[in-house]
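Lab notebook, bench 4. Still working through the backlog of constructs that have no structural model yet. Next entry is a single chain of 179 residues. Request: give me the structure tokens for it.
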Amino acid sequence: MSRIGKKPIIIPSGVRVALDGDTLNVQGTKGKLSKVVPPGVKVDVGADLITVALADATQTNTAMLGLARTLLANMVDGVVTGFSKVLEISGVGYRADLKGTVLNLALGYSHPIEYPLPAGIEVEVEKQTKITIRGIDKELVGATAAKIRSFREPEPYKGKGIKYADERIVRKAGKTGKK
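Model written out:
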């Protein structure tokens, strides 16, 4: 059995958790999230704890136990504190601008990129080169950050492009002259 799957999830004060059939609804100060519990995993909601257990011990159910517990813990953390990712843009002329719910990116292409933000995501642009993505759904925050990064991934020679703030770009040596 999974070590992560055995750990109970503590419900903070101000968070309401309800189980409707196979859907778990979590509501807190930042918003409301719901997720379908994977089949083969049994969720018990108590007064201040959520426990996850196996319905029957097959190999696929055992593999889903730790995943289901982590997804439910991320839901509880998201409605209390939220999640954020920071992207940095580097390159001459590369910049970002936010207009309403559309992120405009100038990344060296012949046209600007207009990316409409998904519902539940807040974006803050600082100094046109730093993008902060916030939301209560960890999966959606990560997917949005990955999509924005994919518009111009950092290249290894000069490091131009969009990178995560904590990402380290391994640089390659350029061409050497003839000897």
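Notes after review: The CA atoms of residues 102 and 116 lie 4 Å apart. The first strand starts at residue 9 and ends at 10. Flag for follow-up if needed.
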